[in-house]
Amino acid sequence: MSRDRQRLAISRPKQGAAGKTGAWRVFKPVRDEGKCNRCGICALYCPDSVIDEDLEIDLEFCKGCGICANECPKKAITMVRD
Q1: pTM of the entire structure?
Q2: Cα–Cα distances in Å, from 54 out to 2, 23, 72?
Q3: 10 is a domain residue
Q4: pLDDT tens across 3-24, in order?
């Protein structure tokens, strides 16, 4: 993903009234640097916009839905028990 490429998501994750949303998840995504081709599809499909331009996953807000792992064409993201 190019650094000059603009993000399409309008919202950004932030702390809500009940606290940060990542505290209750059962599985968390882990990206394998060796398999990842940095296409950015995971960030594009993330419903909570917790994957940044560097493809780092903000686990403070990740709900563990697994959409990023499911959409990754290289299967570089696996869901592991948190």
Answers
A1: 0.75
A2: 9, 23, 15
A3: no
A4: 555 555 566 666 666 667 766 7
